[in-house]
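Dear support,

I submitted the protein below through the web form. The confirmation email said the job was done, but the results page showed an empty box. After a refresh the structure appeared. I'm attaching both so you can tell me whether what I see now is the final result or a partial one.
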Amino acid sequence: MRRSSSPPPRPRPTLLLGGLAALLLLAGCGVGSGGDGDTPEPAPSAGSSASGDPSADAGAGSGSDVASYVALGDSYTSAPFVPQTDVAGGCFRSTGNYPSQVAEALGAELTDVSCAGADTTDVTAPQIDGVPPQRAAVTRDADLVTVALGGNDGGVFSTLVGQCGRPGVAATDCAQELSPAVESRLRQRLQRTGDDLVRVLRQTARRAPDARVLAVGYPTIVAADGSCDALPLPAASQAAAARLNLDLNATVRSAARRAGATYVDVAAATEGHDICAEDPWVNGAVTDQQRALAFHPFAAEQEAVAEAVLGVVRR
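What the results page shows now:
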């Protein structure tokens, strides 16, 4: 369900909650298929890094020539409650998110249109009444554009968030909500996400022909083993959760390669800091309005993403 501009809504914690639930169905499924007339390309190994991507070497430089920076993305970019948050018409955009840090480091003018709950369709159509499509911010004079989308596409996560992944819901109860038809639709949606991202990245490059376009991945949210009170899934689901985390990033990586963009490997930059880690960089099930929305990044994660983006820009 789309949000309206009045009254301003609370941000939806859909990305991780649904992602953790969806992994029970989608773990190990293929990602990335042909789109925009492309020849279908198999998804790269989930363990590969940005440095192994041929597109990662394009546009090397110090980053000092970046005067105009545009950030597109969802709640993992807007970073609600990290720590000061502008309601931003319902987008819940933090003043401490990674685009703000990158812009400050580069001395660039920032246009940040990231928005909680956004998916790739919100690049070309308004997500919220009164808030323009994200692509409207991308102009010909942009020097750098980051695109961090895909986790919310097709309602995959929000379909399951109502039941799966909620504290106190047994795995068996959750499984009863997942019919074969739902499973089939979720698999198809994950495969389509790569094509949707390719279109967004190519459209972005056309609108800003001189800009470096970066496809920013998602953090290491779940470890392959271990469990904790902050993560409302049974311990047996940990490995599957980690596989979905990898699959989602493989989708973004593959889309970047097909579109000629550069992939930013956020998972590698945040490894060892999942929800159940000794030093977690992603919040658990309880929202802390001074630190992070439930199942969303803490300030430390946003700092790590900023460093990863800057490392690519300055390479």
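Response: this is the final, complete result; the empty box was a page-load delay. The mean pLDDT is 76.
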